Structure prediction request, 435 residues.
Amino acid sequence: MSSPRKIRIGLAGLGNVGAGVVKNLQKNSALLTTRTGAEIGVGKVCVRDLAKSRDVEVPAAQLTTNLQDLLTDPATDIVVELIGGTTIAYDFVADALRAGKPVVTGNKALLAERGIELVALAEKENVPLYFEAAVAGGIPIIKAVKEALVGNEIDSIYGIINGTSNYILTRMNDADLSYDAALKEAMDLGYAEADPTLDINGWDAAHKAIILAWLSYGRWPKPEDIHVEGIENIAPEDIAFADRLGYAIKLVGVVKPGTDHRIECRVNPAFLPKSHILAHVNSVYNALAVRGDVVGETLYYGSGAGQDATSSSVIADIADAAANIAHDAGFEGFLPHGEHGVSVPLSETTSSYYVRLAVDDRPGVIAEITALLATNEIGILSIVQPEPDQPKKGTATLVLTLHDTNYGTIASALEKIEALPCTQKKPVLYRIESI
Ligand code: HSE
Prediction:
């Protein structure tokens, strides 16, 4: 048997995930050699601060602060980009592709915003670009959609694809933690992005949804065209009402085909029925329900963030790239062409809804509200006026669930409800997703 080919990675970024890659490549080195026929080692590593103490040991001679050193080092076979951001990272990935070096990246913002350019470049240069770690941390969802489901039209993807926000919602529900306390825990555990804003405002999940939409339909939704709503404004009382009504609130990414080859791609907090397994995905876990026209419903579950889980996906890509090089296998897998798609506008998207109203506590108010909904042809699934734990004199809470209708119709009806003299506060609206 021939001896395994030595493959060196040039690693850009030795933060939480980068350190996990080095640690776990070492841990399972013999296993990876057996499985890939390549002896994978770490070559040059680019860091911001040479003096910083780290969890993993990399010989000082391998460290550099200059990204270009990774590309000019002839020993670099594969480039791994884990620096994040969309400007320096873009230039670096583009330079690596032009230099003929296969690239592994976990950078979802980079792909969602500039993937269209990078895919075109990768195709032009005939150099592979791998990105398993960009979506859902340790879950191999990219391989699933790109390879295992390649013979399917994708009918829908519903995903809990941000570990930090799922962790926060779980802790608010299970431990009655405040939003801030739960966010701090998620940051301390290394789940959140360096700037957690993207985790909680929905954009981290949106970047992942855009990548899944591209893989599913071969076209990139434009970030500015899609609806993205985060978890910042979810009130504890809505979490409690959801529970009482048989739902759990989750931040979901939804990808579906629309009419006329358009793509529905959105991220929003949603009520998920407890009868569906996604409603029971808690803590930092992610899960995706993918429906294909041939296979039917499939489900993928695992850690969506964190050092080990995410490094598992990065290492899977490194192993693919190394095996390709070691066996001269050339380019593998399908890569849809990069062009922009047209997004279905939010107003045309359809679901059922949960609505919470604060209204005057007097006879006839429910009749006014239901009449207005009827005029707008919105059907009521249920209506309750829960007895409050701490009654507020003169105010009644109404909780309604509504039949399927498009968002434009419900949004316009709620504007009219808000304008009624009996309505005391802006109505609260959440989608109920029937998966
Ligand atoms: N901050 C991300 C999350 C990490 O919480 O899901 C994985 O993208």
About this structure: The mean pLDDT is 94. DSSP finds 14 helices and 16 strands in the chain. The longest strand covers residues 395-406.
